[in-house]
Amino acid sequence: MSARVSDVLRPDGRLLVRSAGEWTDETAAAAVELADRRGLPALAHVSDQAESERAALARAGFVEARRQAVVAISLERALVALADASVPAGIQVRSAADVDPHRLRLLDDELRQDVPGTSGWRSTPEEFDDDTFADPAFDPRTYLVAVDEASGEYLGLVRVWMNERGPRLGLVGVRGDRRRQGLASALLACALTAVRATGAAEVTAEHDLGNEASAALVAGLGARRVGVQVELVHDPPRSGTTARRARERSRVG
Q1: 150: exposed, middle or buried (C-beta count within 10 Å: 0-12, 13-18, 19+)?
Q2: Domain 70-229: what homologous superfamily?
Q3: Strand order in the sheet with 5-9
Q4: Strand, coil or helix: 158
Q5: Does residue 14 surpass a pLDDT of 50?
Q6: Cα separation values, 155 from 97, 104, 114, 233, Å
Q7: Which residues in the chain are classed under CATH 3.40.630.30?
Q8: pLDDT mean over 182-198
Q9: Alpha carbon of 173 to those of 29, 188, 245: distances in Å?
Q10: Which residues pair with 12 in a beta bridge?
Q11: Average pLDDT over residues 171-180
């Protein structure tokens, strides 16, 4: 395998492959060889403007799976739009640092099933800890969880990663039976208020171009599109069975 290709096994049993530079015929072929050898689906992400890279991946056997818009959201405009959002009665908003990490992980897994591109996501405790609390971009002020005061049930979450290059809205989601109560907007308002307090002026986010609800949400916040990312996949024969076995072997708790 080319040293210019790296991979990460995601909790949904897919390999996220990256090239150290632009995707070329050589690196795309190396990614396919890696996926075939491990018997796992491989995902690559490129800009829709990177025609030569997409062509190289296609020649190697990758096919386009979906597209997502990359947007920038002005915090000033978003918070004006969310001015009337309030936490519903009987619900507390807590920092992810102050809740049960096991239950938070299960909520995250559940919410991801509704996110295009992450169905089948099941994190181990170690994976979740590494990807959340050990991530330098984790900020307890901007990763919030909605908790039912009476039952203690975890209802939804919002997370904004405080990256060095700028804040990024990673996810806002509410369990299916508690939607349409204004909870997602309230969580967003809380998180974006905390982000603004750091001095940031905007956050970035992505949403699947086929997800009308997400598109409407960011449009309501005054988002502007700054790019489109294409997800391509190479799926080796019988990779689904192999992937499930790989995940079962690594499953703990």
Answers
A1: exposed
A2: Gcn5-related N-acetyltransferase (GNAT) (3.40.630.30)
A3: 5-9, 15-19, 42-47, 224-234, 63-74, 202-208, 166-174, 154-163, 143-148, 91-95
A4: strand
A5: yes
A6: 16, 10, 15, 32
A7: 70-229
A8: 97
A9: 37, 10, 29
A10: none
A11: 92
